[in-house]
Amino acid sequence: MIDFVLLWVDGSDPKWLDEYNKYLPNNSRQKASLFRSWDNLEYWFRGVEKFTPWVRKIHFVTCGHTPTWLDTNHPKLNIVKHSDYIDDSHLPTFSSHPIEINLHRIEGLAERFVLFNDDTFLIARTPPERFFIDGLPCDMLVSNALSSSLGVGHFVLNNLEILNRHFKKRDSIKRDFSKWFSLRYASDILRNIALLPWGRFTGFVDPHMPQPYLKSTFDKVWELEERELLKTTSSKFRSCSDISPYLFRYWQLADGRFQPISIRDTKYISISHESIDSGIISTSITSQKYKMLCLNDSGDIDNIEEFERTKRDIQNTLMSLLPDKSSYEI
Hints:
Elements: E1 2-7, H1 14-23, H2 41-51, E2 57-62, E3 77-81, H3 82-85, H4 96-101, E4 112-116, E5 120-122, E6 132-133, E7 136-139, H5 153-166, H6 169-175, H7 177-180, H8 189-194, E8 211-214, H9 215-233, H10 246-254, E9 259-260, E10 266-271, H11 273-278, H12 280-287, E11 292-297, H13 304-321
Parallel strand pairs: 1-2, 1-4, 2-3, 7-9, 10-11
Antiparallel strand pairs: 4-8, 5-11, 6-7
Helix pairs in contact: 5-10, 12-13
């Protein structure tokens, strides 16, 4: 029994924008344009229905709004508002971190679930064993050395501080040697070898892809680190002191509660002038060489006309792969 969890926000919703601007600090650099829509969410649902028909339930998480075309009465769909599982004292929030680190509180969520962002798509048939084997999440344990605290670096450092309080790297390697040095990681295994001299966890390679989790991992980390997690839950906007949901992934890796896999069946593409001009987006979608694809908005396309043109091109390409409406669409 495997559930999917999908996070979504309608950045063009006037009510949401009013609240966003009401709470946005004057000195904040975060702009509402970060939440602009590429209007391709229906293809996420089409991909799920065509390529993963085995999913038990989709938990669609929003602040309360839903797409006009979505059949909210679909038997496999659970519409989840932030207020359904996060205390009102912490709402509204405009940071994904509080929304994600509390997912285990969603009523009816399965022990095994896969977290999707709305820029990650299923584009080829994907069996349940791609996400879970023998009840454990499928993942790759590839070490990384954090070179900067810029961007998401602050969150990674905060996660690692907690992880190193509860786990010893050498014990993890000794217990799960075959998982640390699985040949499924191919040449990436060299990263684990190169970072062996460091006694502490220095970080992991983080694929921006659908991530399988065990709900019990969330329960355990919250039991041990409630104070730190509550600080992040109270954040309305991202803060350098935040804990990110990757902590739960790191915990599963350090604890050996995962099955090693290769992620060569996934593709991450930053939507930029380069990726558009090269045709890599359309080729990656139509060739179905990969099972999963991330189309990440880099912000590089900032001209309105160019953005609209690029959006139409991506929509048309997804349409060529998934032309038929899903049962999730009215």
